[in-house]
Amino acid sequence: MIRLAKGGKCVFGWSRVQSDGSVYVPAEVRYVYCLEPCCRVVVLPGSRRSGGFCLIEMRQWKNSRLSRLIGSVSQAGLSRIPEGEAILAGRRSLERTTLREDGYIRLSRRIMEPCGIQKGDWLLSVRGSGTGPAFIVRGPLVQQARRHPGLASFSPAEADDARA
Question: Taking the model in full, what pTM does it have?
Fold first, then answer.
């Protein structure tokens, strides 16, 4: 984990959105947030400023600040949502997916649009302020990270300079 500026957010590296909507969750992210292979996670759009999404492990959902804000979707209700099907909760879209053994999650088209991401985008994995990591696509932190040469890129058979 790298802190880009004194007192700033910690970042883990870059992950590329694959052609099938898959995004790699770096091993350090999985370790910090205790994300086990095959665990179920909730995907929520990030802020308007940074785009991207936040991940919350299903067991953490009921204790998360976001679940209290959204309120209309219980943990049991989330369990009944078919994987990859985005639902509207209040004014936010969310979906449930599974962290695969290879460290990837798959996002549906229905959640990618509200997150402001497209296939091929580079997402910066950031230590979130809540109960899960954020994967952001734009904003000042992304601009700062693009200038940091030591930041890891996670994408099979992709060149690091593609994120520029």
Answer: 0.82
